[in-house]
Amino acid sequence: MQQNERVNFGSKLGAILAAAGSAVGLGNVWRFPYEAGNHGGAAFICIYLGCVFLFGLPIMISEFIIGRRSKASTGEAYQALAPHTPWRWVGYLGVLTGFLILGYYAVVAGWTLEYVLQAVIGGFDGKDSETFIRMFSEFSQHPFRPLLWLFVFVLTTHFVIVKGVKEGIERSSKVLMPLLFVLVVALAVCSVLLPGAEKGVEFLLKPDFSQVTADVFLGAMGQAFFSMSLGMGCLSTYASYFGKDTRLGATAMSVGLIDTLVAILAGLIIFPAAFSVGIQPDAGPSLIFITLPNVFQQAFSGFPLLGNVCALLFYVLLAMAALTSTISLHEVPTAFLHEKFGFTRGKAARLVTLGILVVGTVSSLALGDWGEVTLFGMNIFDFLDFFTAKIMLPLGGMMASVFVGWIIDKQVVRAEVTNDGRLKAPYYPVFLFILRYLAPVGILVIFLNELGCF
Ligand code: PFF
Prior knowledge:
The chain is mainly α and 454 residues long. The protein has helices spanning 12-23, 26-38, 42-70, 74-81, 88-120, 129-141, 145-163, 165-192, 198-205, 214-227, 234-239, 248-276, 287-299, 304-341, 345-365, 380-407, 410-417, 428-450, and strands at 374-375, 378-379. Helix 2 runs antiparallel to helix 10 and helix 12 crosses helix 13.
């Protein structure tokens, strides 16, 4: 650890926007709508919101405490706060999880660039739904084209990472996040105004609990951790760059609210538009790559230019959201290698980028030529998504909550949430109760329920 040279974010707003930049990403715009669409819409969203408040916010504050207190990246933070204990493995596991997520996340992030290009060159013009399905599967299964975009995306991420915490991460978030927010709101308004859009709004807002199964709970919990960037120490790594006057509770609340709002707005872009042209909401991971271009074409059939502009805005938005998240995912292993092995930031980043290109290539090819290679009945891409989001992140989150709830000295915990007594933090007793009992037991129950234990 090189505590003395450690940089911080330049401002409290910078810290919030960087953390929100990590949280808001493909998880909100790509993953949330298809998980909600597959699990009955509004009922899923209700359970999701429960997971955000019950697990998400307290665990986010815990990760902030771990990061700011240790002043170390997640790989070293547990070791610093509980030296010579097996807790350090939780940190190492976080680094591995981040690396694996980035390995498939960057593939989807790359796809957004292909769709930006198609919107620019008019590649969606005059196509029908059959053609969009074919276009997507031909592209995603192509041996080279997705790889090209994967490389472009990973190298862009690399470029920001080597610029450092203030100049790279904080600056890019300050520009990209407000832009993204304006775009999401504008597109949601357009979508809700389309003829026949009410059915989509109803699907999002009117719960039908008859569809709720153990799978829905696991899906909602995994989605909450994934979307809020929790369970792998990403936000604890960012918190290690927080200044001492950053308010941990208020920052978590802002990040949680922004993240949830963007997810709901993404739902408001996608479902009303899909229903408006009679497309089913349960199309799965391809929802935004097949249904949406089709929606934009059909909804503006008399004005193809307008359809292309909407499509372009949407995919640019998606690429920006993905970029601020890939930056945060890359930062976890980079900061770890930098601190643990004393590599320069540049060298650490190069090693991570190289590793990601290898894992990314494998998971991209898993959707095409290497599709027969399976793990637990899933291709490598689907396996990485399932294993990281639904198993590793909730487990990592549970460990963080037990660590702060039971292991760290409570004076330290109180000092962190109150900024050494300068803030009131009236939520402290509830927060501690959730960390000690509700979150660990709740997460365990959802796991056991999924395994069919009761
Ligand atoms: N939260 C990001 C999203 O919603 O796209 C994905 C992500 C980033 C997950 C960082 C986990 C993480 F640590």
